[in-house]
Amino acid sequence: MHLWEWRPPPSSFRRWHRWAPAPGGPGQLQLDKAAQRLQEFAVPDELDGTAPRARRRAAFLVLWGSLNPVHAGHLTALEAAAEAVSAKAKGPVVAGFLAPSVDEEELENDQPSFAQRRHLCALACTDSDWIEACPWGRSSSSKVVRKIHKHLQERFSRVNGIAWEFEGWQIASADAALVLPLKRSSPRTVFVAHDESDRCLVRSYIAGCEQEKIARSVLVAMSRYPGVTSAEVRRLVSAREWDRLTERGWLAPAVLERLQTQAESAELERLRAKVEAQAAALVCRRAGADAAEAEAGLRDSTWRPGVALTGRAEADAVQADEAAAATLDDCPSELEVLQAVVEAGFSACSATVAWDLQLVGDAAVRTGMVAGAPPAAASDACPGTPRSVRPG
């Protein structure tokens, strides 16, 4: 590198990197709903009967957290907070944002990434006329509030000839009052209480604020879904309790459908991997058996693939063939076919390895593992397999 080439200092790079769009999705903040609501509230003073004002105030809300997954409690918390802010503030609430936190450390196998949680947030607020999903992953809600405030102020500083000034509110749970440090630079905060004890906790916290300005920037709202938690939703999703989730209405229909699709896809991939592992194990087992028979001199030198089985081995193979074929015919879906192959097929078809491999080939074609391949292609994969022991 030449001496005259410029390199940004580490602090500048970190600042640029922190505000860069998160990988896996767009970084543009959607403000169409906020623009529509501002158009509705941008009524001249002489028409709404109020005294002329140089500037008007509008509020926006930010619900930041892991949101794993986003559920009805998060959406209703935004609605309850909007009512509290509208009653307290001097202007309307024009926007609310679901802001999933950034992935601070390596994710576990079953933990969704930021991009996945952000996509679920976008699905959850599709039917709302004022809630959007934040496209950035940040390590704190105050950073999200400041960034959104900058975007709103730059884009909607004047609407229909009316100058607007925006103020941001962060939403936190009531127990966060025990650990959340509030100071003059902190965003305005709405604590969502689940019961009366939470309300008393927040009120005592507000009363304990020494600076009057901080006390006026803290509100409390009651939750409309006190029983729903992200941990309980995750438990039901892991248990595949889709009917219970639908009955309780804890998830938006689009979010529930997406989670169900992801769960079925993960299970399907797991079963496919298990089928492939079983097939590899059968090949290794057959190779070991052939080597042992050849070494002991027990194998007929005239035997070759394609000769029909005789005796008890053929009878066992035919019986296993019929049982497994009946099992496969009863499976209406790809997932159930793979389950039948894993749970019933391989355990029942131990008479010949050739039949086992043929079962894997036919199951792969029937379940789409060999895309576009006709059944005959799978049969030709084991050209020497006796016809009498192949699935019908």
From TrEMBL:
InterPro entries: Cyt_trans-like (IPR004821), Rossmann-like_a/b/a_fold (IPR014729). GO terms for molecular function: catalytic activity. Pfam families: CTP_transf_like. Residues 63-149 form the Cytidyltransferase-like domain. This is Cytidyltransferase-like domain-containing protein. It comes from Alexandrium monilatum.
